[in-house]
Design goal:
Distance between the termini: 14 Å
Number of strands: 3
Number of domains: 1
Helix content: 10-25%
Length: 65
């Protein structure tokens, strides 16, 4: 999923304590969220959590393996 869409979806569900990281381990900053694809998240999809739960989204640039 495009990283911006993943963030928008979580925020629409009331989750705003979102962190993000470069899934390649290169430590890059996700400056343009629409150029990245979310590859993992620290809380499983569908899991019920409190709105204060921090959630980390891991992403790679679109087209990266």
């Amino acid at each position: 999923m495009v990283h911006q869409t993943a963030q928008d979806t979580m925020q629409a569900a009331g989750l705003y304590f979102l962190r993000e990281e470069d899934a390649t381990g290169q430590g890059r900053i996700l400056a343009l969220d629409r150029n990245w694809t979310t590859t993992a998240q620290s809380v499983a999809a569908g899991q019920v959590v409190d709105c204060t739960t921090p959630i980390t989204l891991s992403a790679k640039k679109i087209g990266e393996r």
